[in-house]
Amino acid sequence: MNAEVKKHFHSLRSRIHDFERIAMEQDKESDKQALLDQVEGHRKQMLSNQTAWRKANLASKLSVDKMEKQALLNGSDGAARQRKMTKEGLARNAGDITENLMSISRMMAQQVQQSEDTVTTLATSSRTVQETNEEFKAMTGTIQLGRKLITKYNRRELTDKLLIFLALALFFATVLYILKKRLFPFL
Length: 187
Prior knowledge:
mainly alpha; 3 helices
């Protein structure tokens, strides 16, 4: 592997590791498992790309070695030119393969970045849902307290009406008693 490809694969490994760490920090088990599944998929794809790159690199080296052997056995100038052209073609092919693999690696890096963004959004949403849940619990307590107070108020109102009715009845009874004694003293 050349240095650029090694650097790129190392970068991918560290991003996948960061993604895995973020997944492990999730509160919900279902979110954690979904993210860990994505991490495993990215890891498998990266290993597959590494293997494909190594195989392509090895195949091009073997092909170059084989052509060099044939050129040495033939020993002619035309073969040397052909070998040089073949080496250049193989080098170009190897470069194309490397470029394709780098493109795939860049796409994987973009996918990992999108997954990290998704995890961040998911964590923010999870936090918001938890805060909303806490507010809902607080509101539920307030509503229950309000319900108790309204029930108590209704009982007090009923008690007050009863006391007013009894007071009025006592007042009228007293007024009738006084009128009876004043107007009809003989009864």
